[in-house]
Design a protein that fits this description.
Blueprint (H helix, E strand, L loop, with lengths): L2 H13 L34 H4 L3 H10 L11 H7 E12 L5 E6 L1 H15 L1 E13 L2 E12 L8 E12 L2 E11 L19
Length: about 200
């Protein structure tokens, strides 16, 4: 990793709320505010079955969106995310470099949790899948998932949209997430209409 990229990553992690791992679009959350205290006592029991999450592609994708979602002050179940991800899985946040190129921030699952935990739990964060395209061959699958993001509550107006490129591995009776890369919609990078609808059969 270059010194320039390391500096950019360090600056982003110190000064920005981490929308899904390093989004420069977030501006309404003040990182200087004290963290929201978690409710006293045990957290509610998980309302999902870890084995069911990974039985199907649809289950993996729904769980991937659900494990970061919640209102301000609610702890996330990060073990649910860990259950989805292969031991070598990587998150790759793609961002414009402000010119004609791009930079990539590469995060392990634990990196992702570290950078996002306070932001998600403090400010409230929700994402909705708008459309999905899925292609499979043998034990590998690629999911092209269009999303929109909300801050604070599930009913808030979306503040940004983008596309996740998710690579999945079928291993026996379960699926693993191998990688998840994404880029955001911008004035010079609008979402194509074809990615705003799910084709028949998901392809």
């Amino acid at each position: 990793m270059s010194a320039t990229l390391l500096s950019a990553l360090a600056a982003a992690s110190l000064s920005l709320g981490m929308h899904a791992g390093l989004s420069p679009e977030v501006s309404s959350w003040d990182a200087s505010q004290p963290a929201v205290e978690q409710p006293e006592g045990p957290q509610p029991a998980a309302s999902y079955d870890p084995a069911e999450d990974v039985k199907t592609i649809d289950g993996v994708m729904k769980a991937l969106y659900a494990c970061t979602a919640g209102p301000p002050g609610q702890a996330r179940d990060w073990d649910r995310l860990r259950n989805l991800c292969h031991q070598d899985m990587r998150f790759l946040a793609v961002r414009s470099d402000g010119a004609d190129g791009a930079v990539v921030f590469t995060l392990t699952v634990e990196d992702y949790i570290m950078h996002n935990k306070t932001y998600f739990e403090k400010g409230g964060f929700f994402e909705s899948e708008l459309a999905r395209r899925t292609e499979s061959f043998g034990n590998i699958t690629h999911v092209w998932s269009t999303f929109e993001s909300r801050l604070g509550s599930a009913g808030a107006d979306p503040y940004t949209r983008g596309i996740y490129s998710v690579q999945l591995l079928k291993d026996g009776g379960r699926w693993w997430v191998l990688s998840c890369s994404w880029d955001m919609e911008r004035p010079d990078n609008p979402l194509p209409e074809k990615y705003l609808e799910t084709p028949v059969g998901g392809e």
